[in-house]
Amino acid sequence: MKIKLLGKNLEELKKVVADEGLPGFTAKQIAGWLYVKKVRTIDEMTNLSKAARAALSEKYEVGVTPYGGLQISSDGTKKYLFPVKCAHRRALNAGCNGSLEEADLEEGAVEAVMIPDDDRATLCVSSQSGCRMGCRFCMTGRQGFHGHLSAADIISQFIAVDESDRLTNAVFMGMGEPLDNYDNVMRAIEILTADWGFAWSPKRITVSTIGVLPNLKRFLEESRCHLAVSLHDPFGPERLSMMPVQGAWPIQEVLDLIKQYDFTGQRRVSFEYTMFAGFNDTKQHADALIRMLRGLECRMNLIRFHKIPDFPYETSSGVIIENFKQRLNNSGITTTVRASRGEDILAACGMLAGQHMQ
Fold first, then answer.
1. Fold agreement (3-61, 69-345)
2. Beta bridge partners of 354
């Protein structure tokens, strides 16, 4: 099994070229081919000598994974299916720390969604195959956890989509909990934002989390990307009935941590709130959110629930959602209703399941 160059940072590429006896400057050349020119093979790295390319090809490959399926929504949203090989849960439990043999890997599939909007093209990227957070209203969470994506798997989604050269933004809101795969997600963000990588501003990237407290603190300290928090209910027992993570990391503790950081500058924090009819859409819920978020510069995104099998709730009515929005806006919390995109191809919020397409 060849080693992927994709997903390596500049320091790791320097080690690769040193091990192969190549000049040190070759590392930056390789980074340019991987992350700027986005080549698929080592042979395309034409400013490396033939001998250097041959030596690299003995052990390494670029590692871009082509998509294996594509669906296009009536609204222009595109859903890509990517085959992946993830670490078995038993391998993760054994503490392999990334040193995995072929036998430790299992076949899976993840989805990424490209959302066009005028002059913007946003990629909703996956960070895990499945998810172990277990939210009842999320198709990804209901399938269980299959494994972490490597930094190569994550970056490959940016390169393999047809819109790769036109992407303007990224949201880590696809399959998986990004902060549960912290090291690989942060490695991918390093590549996206480094001058030797994609050279994106951190302002172009939003990372969503359910509230994984230990890694959330690290993220707030180590990143300047935007943060989106899946809140969905201000009342602990209700939230717990939908989101088991509430038992480990209560939302109030998540907010207490977030309020220690400054969001009045370029970095934003927003909250995701899926609307369930008769469950979390009352005035009492809106008022509890107002009390909970008081003093925090933030935004609220209200999300229409997209119906999934074997789940009892429906989305709130348009009138209820609008009244809820106005109540929050009137309190000073900037609140919008997120447009549903790609629902007809199961690409909307909470609908990704990594299912092989016919």
1. no
2. none
Instruction: Provide the CATH number for the domain formed by 69-345 in this structure.
Output: 3.20.20.70
Please identify which residue in the block is written with the tokens 């609908």.
Answer: 351
Single-letter amino acid code for the residue at 30: I
As a whole number of angstroms, the distance between CA 330 and CA 300 comes to 13
Please give the full DSSP string across 216-251, using - where no structure is assigned.
HHHHHHH--SEEEEE---SSHHHHHHH-THHHHS-H
Q: What is the pLDDT of residue 311?
A: 86
Query: Is the pLDDT assigned to residue 238 strictly greater than 80?
Result: yes
**CATH architecture of structural domain 3-61:** Orthogonal Bundle (1.10)
Interatomic CA distance for residues 209 and 229, integer angstroms: 5
User: What are the phi and psi torsion angles at 220 (to 5°)?
Assistant: -65, -30
Residues annotated as catalytic are 111, 349
Q: Please, is 215 exposed, middle or buried when counting C-beta atoms within 10 Å of its C-beta (0-12, 13-18, 19+)?
A: buried
Whether 77 contacts 114, CB under 8 Å = yes
